[in-house]
Amino acid sequence: MDDLLAQLRAGLPADALITDPDVTASYAHDMASFCAAGAPAVVVLPRTVEQVQHVMRTATALRVPVVPQGARTGLSGAANATDGCIVLSLTKMDRILEISAVDRIAVVEPGVINATLSRAVAEQGLSYPPDPSSWEMCTIGGNIGTASGGLCCVKYGVTAEYVLGLDVVLADGRLMTTGRRTAKGVAGYDLTRLFVGSEGSLGIVVKAVLALRPSPPRQLVLAAEFPSAAAACDAVCRIMERGHTPSLLELMDGTTIRAVNAMAHMGLPETTEALLLAAFDTPDPAADLAAVGELCAAAGATEVVPAEDVAESELLLQARRLSLTALEAVRSATMIDDVCVPRSRLAAMLDGTAAIAEKYGLTIGVCAHAGDGNTHPVVCFDQADPDESRRARESFDEIMALGLELGGTITGEHGVGVLKKDWLARELGPVGLEMQRGIKQTFDPLGLLNPGKLF
Amino acid sequence: MDDLLAQLRAGLPADALITDPDVTASYAHDMASFCAAGAPAVVVLPRTVEQVQHVMRTATALRVPVVPQGARTGLSGAANATDGCIVLSLTKMDRILEISAVDRIAVVEPGVINATLSRAVAEQGLSYPPDPSSWEMCTIGGNIGTASGGLCCVKYGVTAEYVLGLDVVLADGRLMTTGRRTAKGVAGYDLTRLFVGSEGSLGIVVKAVLALRPSPPRQLVLAAEFPSAAAACDAVCRIMERGHTPSLLELMDGTTIRAVNAMAHMGLPETTEALLLAAFDTPDPAADLAAVGELCAAAGATEVVPAEDVAESELLLQARRLSLTALEAVRSATMIDDVCVPRSRLAAMLDGTAAIAEKYGLTIGVCAHAGDGNTHPVVCFDQADPDESRRARESFDEIMALGLELGGTITGEHGVGVLKKDWLARELGPVGLEMQRGIKQTFDPLGLLNPGKLF
User: Fold this and answer.
1) Shortest Cα–Cα distance, B347 to chain A (Å)
2) Domain A96-214, CATH
3) A154, A156, A186: which to substitute to probe chain B, counting the most B Cβ within 10 Å?
4) Which of A10, A281, B150, B223 is the most buried (most CB within 10 A)?
5) Chain-wide mean pLDDT for chain B?
6) Domain ranges in chain A?
7) pLDDT for the residue A313
8) Fold held by B2-89
9) How far apart are the CA of A411 and the nearest CA of chain B, in angstroms?
């Protein structure tokens, strides 16, 4: 341990190391606080690529595990420390190095906050679409590590779609450049994409070239109330089948609506069983909303209310954004599933989740990026009650089993971390898992990078 | 050899094997006919996944290399046979297994022709955007292997963006499923994307889940004439900088225009030095074309002609599609570069290419997916003239060196194959190359899959 600190200090400024256990303990875990986490030996906050290389060379020399971290807003424990590890926080490498409107790219360090980048590019008429709920806090490096999604994905896709090239420090401290800064490129295997969603297990991202888009027009939102989740899902299917391209298509079930009302008194319709929010950022959003409103009515909506303007639209989205927080207030803790199914199976997923809630006697509220088929069943439980905690975990697992059965995936956008390791193996099967481990072995033969995550 | 045929026959119907050397010779190479190619021992045309597994198990047992092939329309020799290999042609596995408008996916076998799929999904109001020039012949499996682009990429991206999941037969005959059939998913490393563009070197794709989009409105095209390539490139930069989203933005240089005229008498403007074609498939394409026309004029266009209708638009695109064929008619052979640069460096790329043509005393016509910065300098030469052939290869290489110097890549969409192997190593650098080789080793430890390609 003394050896580790001495060697780290040899290549890092004094203020880049934290060893006070009270402080290092605060770096122990991400937002999945109920996942196991160890005590880091040291927290390192490098400011340069060379400093990151020094950390990795030291870790390799001394065989010390390294846990890379961004803002620790992840929901799967992927950034949780292991005992005696180096926590490598990239939050101080937070410079936007370049924004080009002609090339439609930004070049950034990993610690740049998503919202900071979004605002910086907006000033130049550009947009960086990926918008995870934590966008005001989370870092681009964390977004890349966890392959974050967000509300915009139904039209604009996920983080992976916007990462063109990377600079990566490998486990042994060598620097590798992947990808490109061009619009297209197919030179060799796509290592860039391999790093997106790899949860820091293959290397440390120290620079990223990101694709940008022109700023879209402001979106207008419509809210539709349904007597059942199934009817709302039917509306989603009709909307997508008819070729619409909403910029957002979100669903809140009755449990979620009532939790949001209880918390924020937003006056959402208490008796409705599902609220669908659809938005368009097209040249004529009102016309698109009118067409979608008709499809909602045909699917059984009892009320269809297009927002009059951008302000009213924002208010509706605020309710959606409050969903997780509101459900967290129901009991002392939550486990958030992230099952994504083909949207044709969305109704089966929601009905099945309701049955699971009833079976286990738990409150499970569902909000969903319905246009993507990506559901977030939120299992509410009291951590102080062992039996309720056990039932929570069992229902959490049963929801993933249901997702796989419906042709879905255990994680649409939150990642695997430590929370879903067993389930990753089930989803991939033995051959896929063997190949994934082979790739890990290629990049990190000593197994030092974020050990115990993914598989 | 007898052993090989006997073992292959044990698991394949008689009509799935071709051993007649006159016939097998015709499977020796793709469209980069000047690249070295060996004589296959046998050509196998399986119809089922099990048959592909049998071929790979046999190849592994007997240590025989396997060269997977689609329609052999590739331009880099990636499908070229090696001496004594099994050519594994996937062209008989050509069923469209599923098309879903709600889930916006198609599930296909690898031998489905791109145009066949495009037409089948169009009947359901859907679109499969990737449109390589060879779309009437090339297969989806080949598109996946080479990560094909096309004219649509500036708005709709490349093949990689549309591959959600794969079934792959590994080198040892085991079957692996990657990815998903959902809109989103981040379960483990992105093996799907790793296979796209891997030129059959990691496994045999036997099924693919593809993302579809709603059919866009028919596009309208505008043609603009410029006194120099640089002025046309300036227009491209202005168009993209102003936030336009053309569905196509193509450039033909003076050499290409005159070659097309010589071949097809299309009445293109003989004296102009660059023709830019811009298209929009937006709700009001005429308005978008008007705005883009003004930007062209501001960049120095001498003539701006929006097509009156879809028919006129098609005529303009026909000229563009004839470019390669027309340049092939200039001398006996062509080598087609595929350098992609940041679009801000497009003018430097075109001017530099013209200087290289002059230096080597060769005709090099350039057509380009200008909106992507993806240029196709076509080096025309007489294969019977050794000195001219040498100069052609040198200029072909110098164009790639220029591309790298300008921050670009040696291949935007045609791949590496055997043609650009040395250059891939230069682009990736030693660390990147080592990691790529490590991945190859993981999937194909005996080095049987398409040996001698990529690196």
Assistant:
1) 13
2) 3.30.465.10
3) A186
4) B223
5) 96
6) 2-89, 96-214, 220-405
7) 83
8) 3.30.43
9) 6
